[in-house]
Amino acid sequence: MKQTIHTVTLIPGDGIGPEVVEAARRVIDASGAKIEWEIMNAGASALEKEGSLLPDRLLASIKKNRVALKGPTTTPIGTGFRSVNVALRQTLDLYTCLRPCRSFKGIPTTRYDNVDVVIVRENTEDLYIGIEYAHDTPEAEKILAFVAGTGKKAPPHSGVGIKVISEAGTRRIVKFAFEYARANGRKKVSAVHKANIMKFTDGLFMEVAKKTAQEYPDIMFESRLIDETCAGLVQRPNTFDVLVLPNLYGDIVSDLCAGLVGGLGVAPGANLSDDLAVFEPTHGSAPKYTGQNKVNPIATILSGVLMLRYLKEKAAADKVEAAVAVVIAEGKSTTYDLKLDRNDPSTVGTKETADAIIQKMGK
Ligand code: NAD
């Protein structure tokens, strides 16, 4: 049978992005899957080379190929952009941020060895929607005046941000969480919010989640408060399965769960719409480590595994994942973040971790 060749947009990004993306590209190329990479700039590097943080040709490439592997990007201050990532997710309506966090054997920096949770974060609404005004601007003053007119009080000269949660936006993310649970043999979906305080935003999220859950009687459902969920995750992470959350809580809980399984260096992710997929690690561009061949490429390599599964390249995905597990378990070719002692002499660099994974795949 003729092998499928996939064209994928490859976005090296900024800071440590190019190093971890190159490591992931090499591993994926060695996996047996056939990928043609279309390299595109985004973020600070795109601004420098093409005069735009999100060039049109980048957006056109993702829309054409439908799949991208992306390194983290930096948003330079004073460019009018709040965040390149938020803008990319909103422009392409990548409404789901999927972040599986599972334990690998042999990571000494984590307290648990049996975590397997999936974060489904709403990616386009909530406090990240970008309706925020600096203190003492005409916009902030107008909103404060409106609030005063309703008889409610807000301190004068406040900065103001607006939290927006819609019924349609909630329904599609909760449906995604249930469909994901069904397709991946998951047993429970927890909708996480603060509906006891934010009755009309998080309250709407909770109500819509409860209603949507009725369409999935085969999957257990629970509605939980964000604060006690954080305590529960830290104390008994193995009682959680799939979590669906509004944007801000999802962002924070993603890093919390990354911490439960060994840190940002091993936390992969995907940004999905109904027909587009941008795979990227949870971590940012860690500018202080740029060009040092120091950081962990595994989060980006595992994002590549998610991509291979999305492309239905199961054998290649299994091969990479198994090799990553062996390299982590052996602990001989891992980066500083997976060591108890940061001066551990067995520490290797980004490139050497990728080399070790490629070598294991060959066996
Ligand atoms: P960060 O994730 O870049 O780094 C925080 C710390 O986490 C680092 O100093 C490092 O100690 C550790 N770390 C991160 N990635 C690691 C890896 N692969 N291996 C080992 N250790 C790793 O977060 P930050 O410092 O808050 O943000 C830096 C920049 O990244 C900002 O400009 C931010 O906007 C951007 N950012 C981009 C994305 C994205 O593109 N998706 C996501 C988050 C932050």
List keywords for this structure.
10-stranded mixed β-sheet, 40% helix, 12 helices, 3 domains, 363 residues, Rossmann fold, alpha/beta, Isopropylmalate Dehydrogenase, single chain, binds nicotinamide-adenine-dinucleotide
Short structural description:
This protein has 363 residues and is α/β, with parallel strands linked by helices.
Give structural notes:
The protein has helices at 17-29, 44-50, 56-65, 84-91, 138-149, 167-183, 202-213, 226-235, 247-260, 298-310, 314-330, 350-361; strands at residues 5-11, 34-39, 67-70, 96-102, 116-122, 132-133, 160-161, 188-193, 220-225, 242-245, 270-272, 277-279. By secondary structure, the protein is an alpha/beta fold. The two termini are 24 Å apart. Bound molecules: nicotinamide-adenine-dinucleotide (NAD). Nicotinamide-adenine-dinucleotide (NAD) binds at residues 20, 72-75, 83, 85, 264-265, 280, 283-287, 295-296, 299, 337. Nicotinamide-adenine-dinucleotide (NAD) binds next to loops.
